Amino acid sequence: MKVWLDGALVDEADARVSVFDHGLTVGDGVFETLKTYGGRAFALRRHLDRLAASAAGMGLAVPPANTLRAAVEAVVAASGLEAVAVRITVTGGLGPLGSGRGGGGPTVVVAARPLPLALPAVDVVVVPWPRNERGALAGLKTTSYGENVVALAYARERGGDEAIFANLAGRLCEGTGSNVVVEHAGRLVTPPLAAGCLAGVTRALLLEAGAVVEEDVSLDALASSSEAFLTSTTREVQPIGAVDGHPLPAGTPGPLTAGAGTLFAALVAKDLDP
User: What is the pLDDT of residues 67-122, one digit of tens each?
Assistant: First the structure.
């Protein structure tokens, strides 16, 4: 595979980042993951906009959108594959062994990997640690994923495929790498951004299409729903089969989930950069 590193397309074996990179030493970075269909990245504009917003929240500089778009296209073309996951990572670059940044520019990496096989449904486990919806990084897609690593390990030790967080207020928030949608009073509901969740691209498209509405709901709404699903770039619309070992009654997928999945597939077929 080829990797785009700081402006140049290089062989994966030749891609090197310093051990003093701030992204490595303190997790000072932001990223986006995209999915390709037929060799073209889906919703690239939206992902680049969110990358810029996350970088602004972190005080990081990012290359112009046109530069990153060209980098993504070059990496995808070099892969020779029609379906890949592409990750854009921007870090604080070379820095001291502490929280303060160095004076150089950022490190920028664009890399691709074959898409993993998506599970037809997932079981989720609610973890005991809340998201901080009032934190400095709330809503930003940063490389500081230590909390997610611990939460996902906790879920997998208990037979789950994804971990679900409440927020400090005890309301439903998100997964480690996904947004959550639940059936609530006959509607599909997802927590608002004020709950501390990431502004997912798939989530946004379903909201704009009217398939899902935003509503602040309790954590218990997940386990008590008849059906629920996760959304993310690589998951698309992925049914939840069980919550903490208890199957949801509508099956996988439930009728509302199936409808949302069909709608999202139609959105992809209609426009690859909506």
Answer: 999 999 999 999 999 999 999 999 999 999 999 999 889 999 999 999 988 899 99
Between CA 223 and CA 219 the distance in angstroms is: 8
Measured CA angle at 24 (ends 32, 195), to 5 deg: 45
Q: How far apart are CA 54 and CA 72, in angstroms?
A: 18
From CA 30, how far away is CA 40, in angstroms rounded? 22
Q: How many residues does the chain have?
A: 274
Contacts of 10 (CB under 8 A, 6+ apart): 2, 3, 4
Contact 131, 145 (CB under 8 A): no
Residue 114 main-chain phi, psi, to 5 deg:
-55, 145
Distance between CA 167 and CA 151 in Å, rounded?
A: 14
CA–CA distance, 256 with 264 (Å, rounded to integer)? 12
Spatial distance between the Cα atoms of 140 and 133, rounded to a whole number of angstroms: 11
- How does pLDDT run across 231-258, given as a tens digit for each residue? 999 999 999 999 999 999 999 999 999 9
Round to whole Å and give the CA distance between 7 and 254: 46
SS3 33: strand
C-alpha distance across the termini of the chain, in Å: 28
Q: In what order do the strands lie in the sheet with 2-5?
A: 8-11, 2-5, 107-114, 84-91, 29-37, 40-41
- Say what the pTM is: 0.96
